[in-house]
Amino acid sequence: MNTNRLVGAAASAITLTLALSACGNAGGAAAPEETGPGEVRVWLVGTDTPPEARDYLKKTFEEENPGSTLTIEEQAWDGLVDKYTTALSGSDAPDVVEIGNTQAAAFTSAGYFREITADEFETLGGSDLLPGFVEAGDWEGKHYALPYYSGSRVVFYSKQVLGDTEVPTTLDEYVETAVDLKTDDLSGVYWPGQDWYNALPFIWENGGYVAEQAEDGTWDAGFSSEGGLAGLEQIQTIMTKGNNAPSDAQETDLQVPFCEGKVAFLSAPSWIQWSINAPEKPEDPDGVPGCASTYGKDLEGLALPGKDGGAAQVFAGGSNIAIAQKSARPDLAMSAYEILLSDEYQSILAGIGLFPAKTSLFEQVDQSTSIGKAAAEAAANAKLTPASPKWADVESKTLLQTAFSRIAAGEDVKTIAEKLDADIEEILNS
């Protein structure tokens, strides 16, 4: 599975245009409606949706809509915003699309998605739907992109590597253990410098914030707040004293150093377990080898510990799903949409460890293992990025990646934080 999926790819610079176009309804008018059998195109991103779910969607849709066909077209996270901007505003728009939760606001505010009415919302799940993801897909009090699935980060470790070291129970212990375990060949915590997703819990747990909106509508960024700075100091301690990952590295193929036995703790999307537990020699010549018979055989997980114990507040990765405003067959698109949010379909996602769109189905995620239990604990305490349609512009300019790379390189934390806050506020308040 795509181990970098939890957050999706960073949006490209074109998202600035997306945000600015909100007042102009960039999605345009809906296409003239047709009737009778037709074709529906569903865009799913990456490989997180398993084959059995895709097969169920296609088979069920075509059984319920005789004469109609459903085609799934897989998209890549890299360059997704550019592609969606072009496709959703054109005459050949797909009908149903998956979108990363941090990107949803930019598209909903720009008018690219069809409104989900109050009655439809209740039929599709209503209050049972993940509230944070519902909020991410809302705009001006209306629903546009509903939850598809969510994921959470788990701290992975192998007992073979950890040995007699005690598993940390607080965030301070996590930092201290990382430093104590680090050698030239072993990262106490493996943390690529550009990975800002793992940084957010340290900000939140220390009482800081990413960005908050005042009553007058202006945004205030909080990396340079007292709590923000405290969190950044802990991050820099791990990155510089407990970690061997390059300061300019991205969060990709994290299972590789883990399977080489060079990692004590690895905070990553819960579904990276499948990559770690992949065969050492994958059938696909282009596949990444795992370590099923070595470090995978005693793989364990824990929720990132909080400042005072318990599970820390972590970033909630995942996706929303929407019907394109320019879908040529919104009736058939809604039929596919209903299947995607059905208990039967969502249960398939739960079966591979993804947290479904409906909270009532969370119990179907296997929590009998330490990894499943940790993922559930983390998901229950997860948070999202600021609900601004311009947040995608913050990501597109790689402000966070640049800032944390500098922190990993040992530069002054306060200077970096103040510059980051200023840049975020300039974008969100423009």
From TrEMBL:
<comment type="similarity">
    <text>Belongs to the bacterial solute-binding protein 1 family.</text>
</comment>
<keyword id="KW-0813">Transport</keyword>
<protein>
    <submittedName>
        <fullName>Extracellular solute-binding protein</fullName>
    </submittedName>
</protein>
<keyword id="KW-0732">Signal</keyword>
<feature type="signal peptide">
    <location>
        <begin position="1"/>
        <end position="26"/>
    </location>
</feature>
<dbReference type="Pfam" id="PF01547">
    <property type="entry name" value="SBP_bac_1"/>
</dbReference>
<dbReference type="InterPro" id="IPR006059">
    <property type="entry name" value="SBP"/>
</dbReference>
